[in-house]
Amino acid sequence: MRIAFFGTKPYDRIWFxxxxxxxxxxxxxxxxxxNEDTVFLAKGHDAICIFVNDYVNAGMIDKLYEMNIKxxxxxxxxxxxxxxxxAGDKIPVLRVPSYxxxxxxxxxMAMLLTVNRYTHRAYVRTRDFNxxxxxxxxxxxxxxxAGVIGTGKIGQAMIRILxxxxxxxxxxxxxxxxxxxxxxxxxxxxxxxxxxxxxxCPLTADTKHIINKRTIGWxxxxxxxxxxxxxxxxxxxxxxxxxxxxxxxxxGMDVYxxxxxxxxxxxxxxxxxxxNLARLMTFPNVLVTSHMGFFTQEAxxxxxxxxxxxxxxxxxxxxxxxxxxxxxxH
Length: 330
Ligand code: NAD
Known about the structure:
Blueprint: E1 2-5, H1 10-23, E2 26-29, E3 47-50, H2 58-66, E4 71-74, H3 84-87, E5 93-94, H4 101-117, H5 119-127, E6 145-149, H6 153-164, E7 168-172, E8 183-184, H7 187-193, E9 196-199, H8 213-218, E10 223-227, H9 236-244, E11 248-253, H10 275-281, E12 286-288, H11 297-316
Parallel strand pairs: 1-2, 1-3, 3-4, 4-5, 6-7, 6-9, 7-8, 9-10, 10-11, 11-12
The structure holds nicotinamide-adenine-dinucleotide (NAD).
Nicotinamide-adenine-dinucleotide binds at residues 77-78, 98, 101, 104, 149-155, 172-175, 200-204, 206-207, 228-230, 254-255, 291, 293-294.
């Protein structure tokens, strides 16, 4: 199988190159992202392999189908960047449903601890021998209430971590997991009662902008918000409005609505034209990182193995256990 591997970074090669040899796949590493302008590069391959800031829309599906592409291999759990309905029966889309939920949950906790205790700012100060701690006061997490939105694999890993801090857990999920020893409450109640809110639901039509002016209005004054899920769960302009009104004690964002084309790239020598992102960077209590919650050795290895297992299943006509189905997009 020849695989066009879009959006290649050096760390992808480390994990995929040796495994491709084992599986006998011919991977063509392409640094360009997959989009309307680059999709023609898939010609001559049997499958494409893409990451979260690549996309495949309906028009591209038609082109890939004409090129006889037999699979779209996602190196991610999320699949909101592919038009699943358009792919339909034409081209199977396969994802990596679980690689290391702990990687993302541990990162979400790191973001919470950072914005709460200002370690990011303390680091900058002490390197300059500015040993003042003025303005760096945080709050205990112990016995506070954490609201977890989405209690799937990552949400549950996060709950275990939060319970380690002896926090009270409230959860919201339209499909509650009855085996969990936590209180499920309606979204509004979660927002009203939580001292910290952490997002672990997928991006769907229902969850787009789940954090908006109205829901921010329900939140406590001095709430902490962490988003390691998908940028468009948060309406950025409404978030900025809330920050300006001093609603938030801290915000950690590993993802951003308009991250495509910005995240994973070095744009340090350019003028930042995304005004919302530039504005977010000016708040001392906001930490933005470049969609790296997944980025551990264990997760990268698991992503590589599972992605190539998916390719193997397509090649050999085996059951496609990780196929993304249309009904999963609701
Ligand atoms: P999962 O499928 O195991 O769990 C998702 C949960 O969200 C499910 O329990 C589902 O019922 C729930 N849900 C669905 N609709 C909801 C709604 N309207 N409101 C609240 N909950 C809802 O997925 P997961 O592995 O836990 O991953 C969660 C998300 O994390 C992914 O969809 C992806 O967007 C994101 N993610 C981010 C990174 C990163 O690097 N930052 C890495 C992996 C995954």
